[in-house]
Design brief:
The complex is a heterodimer of chains A (331) and B (126). With 331 residues, chain A is an alpha+beta fold. In chain A, 40% of the residues lie in helices and 19% in strands. Chain A folds into 2 domains: 11-144, CBS-domain (Roll), CATH 3.10.580.10; 172-325, Histidine kinase-like ATPase, C-terminal domain (Heat Shock Protein 90, 2-Layer Sandwich), CATH 3.30.565.10. In chain A, a hairpin with a 5-residue loop joins strand 4 (122-126) and strand 5. In chain A, helix 10 (193-204) packs antiparallel against helix 11. The radius of gyration of chain A is 34 Å and the shape is rod-shaped. Chain B is of the alpha/beta class and 126 residues long. A 5-stranded mixed β-sheet of chain B has the order 1-5-4-3-2, with helices on one face. The longest helix of chain B has 10 residues, at 78-87. Chain B starts with a helix and ends in a 19-residue tail after the last helix. Classes of the chains: A alpha+beta (331), B alpha/beta (126). Chains A and B meet through helix 10, helix 11 and helix 14 of A and helix 2 and helix 3 of B.
Chain lengths: 331, 126
């Protein structure tokens, strides 16, 4: 076995640390140990120990003399005694006086290491004043880790549940969630990042894969248009309501000369560089309009372009309860 | 078809970290125009392409692509690989060209997941 206790942990090693290992560093020994323990004294007869182990269904006990830990007696010690037919001898004769202990405020990983290096089944746990406060076994550690994992899993489930029920939990005449992204012109490296966030947010809110896909494709084409064509970049604004999703892009130029022509599949004003990247085939607007229920373009060479797309959600696709949630105009 | 089986059929090399290989690949699509991919592809397809820029990964993410194969041994830049790792989309490089790859995969039972251009219906809605 190699001892790497003093080596710093590299990033590569850290990546391989599992959740369970992480928890073994977080959990303290006193959070998982058994506190209510049976103890024996050095002068007790082994016969008493045999009865105690059977009654309490335990396989070991610490030995205390006037409240101080002096040894530990395990079931193996009891077996040795039974084979020698020596049940009338005192505990002192068979106990192990070699004391390997752990501190109650140490993380569980310390107990695990001690178990690996010493072939023992249980460890007495001491407090700061070296007084016995409990016993820890591998079983205690497994139970403690499982309990902690279950708790964390439940917390995560609640978080996911809350996100997907956001609209049901909030009462208002009209509730909406607005996401905004600033898009830089010609930023091809980050092109699609905003769309990626939008698609993920929709999934998180509980959108169906089909709705998330339609929104994702439409807004991605629109985002690429801002990157490819806009003079100074633009803004993506997505408004999510229980019954509909509205996606808009706004830029300040150069504007579309002829919107009807631009809508025609195959028509493109993109440069050769953009075409080499797999875009500018004149399919963008056509793709968008096929994915959304409504598409409006307001463009002029003076003001720039404003694109507005809407997807209406059917009752079973809606975020929360459609009926009580979009009574537009009522106070 | 699973990713591992596909890699063997096309003599592919995996360029990304090991991730979720349990995802079922339902068919294939080959295109270099990302708008064509967005317009025609159905979910859970393998995408055969000669384009290597980060937009390929974003396109794949939007279109629910299961894995990407770069044809003719093309090596994508690091940005592309890093985004693919983040999004857990396997990237595979194969020495063969698009025609050969389509043939091998078709022969192995992988159908086309490209919608043909026939009507104006929304085919991104599956």
């Amino acid at each position: 076995m190699t001892d790497n206790k003093n080596q710093p942990i590299t990033d590569a090693m850290a990546e391989n640390i599992t959740k369970v290992e992480e928890l073994a560093y977080e959990l303290l020994i006193n959070q998982v140990m058994t506190r209510d323990i049976s103890t024996v004294s050095p002068a007790d007869m082994m016969e008493f120990v045999a009865d105690l182990f059977r009654e309490k269904r335990i396989s070991g006990a610490p030995v205390l003399r006037d409240g101080t830990l002096v040894g530990i007696l395990s079931i193996e010690d009891l077996i040795r005694c039974l084979r020698a037919v020596d049940l009338s001898s005192p505990v002192e004769k068979y106990m192990s006086a070699r004391l390997i202990t752990v501190n109650e405020f140490d993380p569980v990983i310390e107990a695990l290491k001690t178990f690996v290096h010493n072939r023992v089944g249980r460890l007495p746990v001491l407090d700061g004043d070296k007084k016995l406060v409990g016993i820890i076994t591998k079983g205690d550690i497994t139970r403690g880790l499982l309990k902690k994992l279950t708790n964390e899993f439940q917390h995560e489930e609640i978080r996911v549940y809350r996100a997907s029920h956001l609209f049901e939990d909030i009462n208002s005449t009209r509730t909406s969630l607005v996401l905004r992204y600033n898009i830089k012109p010609r930023d091809f490296i980050h092109g699609g990042t905003a769309s990626s966030y939008i698609k993920r947010a929709l999934m998180r809110l509980g959108a169906s894969p089909q709705i998330a896909r339609r929104c994702g494709i439409a807004i991605y084409e629109a985002e690429m248009n801002l990157i490819i064509h806009s003079r100074n970049g633009g803004v993506i604004r997505v408004e999510i309501e229980p019954h509909q999703i509205t996606m808009e892009t706004i830029d300040d130029g150069p504007g579309i000369q002829d919107v009807d022509l631009a809508m025609k599949p195959g028509y493109s004003t993109a440069t050769e560089q953009v075409r080499e990247m797999g875009f500018g085939a004149g399919m963008g607007l056509a793709n968008m309009s096929r994915c959304v229920d409504q598409l409006k373009i307001d463009s002029s060479t003076e003001r720039g372009t404003r694109l507005k797309m809407k997807i209406y959600l059917k009752e079973q696709e809606s975020f929360g309860d459609i009926r009580g949630n979009h009574t537009e105009g009522t106070p | 078809m699973k990713t591992q089986e596909l890699i063997e059929i096309i003599d592919g090399t995996l360029l990304t970290e090991e991730c979720d290989f349990s995802r079922e690949i339902k068919g294939g699509c080959g295109a270099d125009l990302m708008s064509d991919v967005l317009a025609s592809i159905q979910p859970n397809a393998i995408l055969l392409t000669g384009l290597c820029n980060p937009q390929v990964i974003r396109t794949a993410q939007m279109a629910d692509v299961a894995a990407i194969v770069f044809v003719r041994g093309k090596q994508p830049p690091l940005e592309t690989i890093s985004i693919a790792n983040d999004e857990c989309i396997p990237l595979i490089s194969s020495p063969y060209g698009t025609f050969e790859l389509c043939g091998r995969l078709y022969a192995a039972g992988l159908p086309s997941l490209e919608n043909p251009v026939v009507d104006g219906n929304c085919d991104c809605d599956e």
